[in-house]
Amino acid sequence: MWFIYITISLLLISFFWDRVKTKKALVLAYQRFIFILPSFLVMLILVSLLLFLFPQEKIISYLNYQSNMWQIILAALIGSITAIPGFIAFPLAGILRNSGISYTTIAAFTTTLMMVGTITFPVEVTYLGKRVALIRNLIGFFIALVIALIIGFYFKEF
Amino acid sequence: MSNKEKKDKKIFPKKVSWLIIFTYFTYILFSYIFNLSSGIKIGQHLFAFLSFMIRILPCAFIVIGLFEVWVPREKVEKHLGYLGGWRGYFWAIILAGTMAGGLMVALPVSSVLFRKGARLSVIFTFLGAAAVVRIPMTLFEASFLGVEFTTIRWLASLPLIILSSLWLEKYLVKQNFQIK
């Protein structure tokens, strides 16, 4: 909860320095928050539906032991559509690694998990527009594939 | 803003969005009343994410608001704009690495940086880095997959993110692109 303390201290410092400015900052914060709220609600709805329709444990079982190109792309696709927070994803990746799944596949999965946001897409569209949000996520997808290959070469998996 | 641009910023028309939201919450409410397991499960997922976001988002928006009134435009232009040179990318990565909340916070931050005159390639580097190099997450990753794995991933992803951001900037600057 450290960020709550930081926010409150910044707010207090600002308030004693200049009340008018601080009030303006709060009004701006409120406006920006209201601006994003509808997209944010849509995102939460998508997350909860997606987690229900595709239970995460089940999806992970599609990752398997070969590391050919299709397997890497499959791992990247799975990483793109799932929405597991890091504190669950990495322990899971550790377990996958111990059960013999290649670093290449794991890298494709965890990197797309971080860089491609299917679920955060409505929010991204609100700020960047459909086209740029799409381009940015596609770039993320390809960067993840390249990273997976580099990691595969480094660990001599090819 | 022209009509076409307005359309580009939304996935569904407003009426459809509200209809979806309404149907969804009605279903969850009914599930809790009549004890339907599917709706209750969806509801639990919703509340888990909602409680996390409700703690982090108000703080993020207040800090962004304070940034907006206190930090002068020249400062941002000097360090994160065209005047900043390569140091802009450096600051973008440091900021992304130490920030909490991921993309949900990074997007509103990028919007305020844009209004203050940061250049697009620095902003896209920031958004990309916010996904892959957040320090708490990285430490976590290294402890489960090894320091080597994480180091290679950092070394490989940062140049790729900066290069793709430069390309994206080149492509978008001609079209007078705006971040809302």
The chain pair with the largest interface is:
A-B, 70 and 65 residues
Residue ranges of chain A: pLDDT <50 for 5 or more in a row?
none
How far is the N terminus from the C terminus of chain B?
11 Å
Question: Span from first to last CA of chain A?
Answer: 44 Å
**What helical percentage do the residues of chain A reach?**
over 70%
Largest sheet of chain B: none
Count of beta strands of chain A: 0
Judged by helices, strands and strand pairing, the structural class of chain A is mainly alpha
Task: Write down the oligomeric state.
Answer: heterodimer
| Rg over C-alpha atoms of chain B, rounded to the nearest angstrom | 20 Å
Question: What is the tally of helical segments of chain B?
Answer: 9
Beta content of chain A:
under 5%
Mean pLDDT of chain A: 88
Q: Please trace the helix and strand order of chain B, writing H or E for each element.
A: HHHHHHHHH
Query: What characteristic shape of chain B results from the CA principal axes?
Result: globular
What would the principal axes of the Cα set say about the shape of chain A? elongated
SS-derived structural category of chain B? mainly alpha
Number of helices of chain A: 8
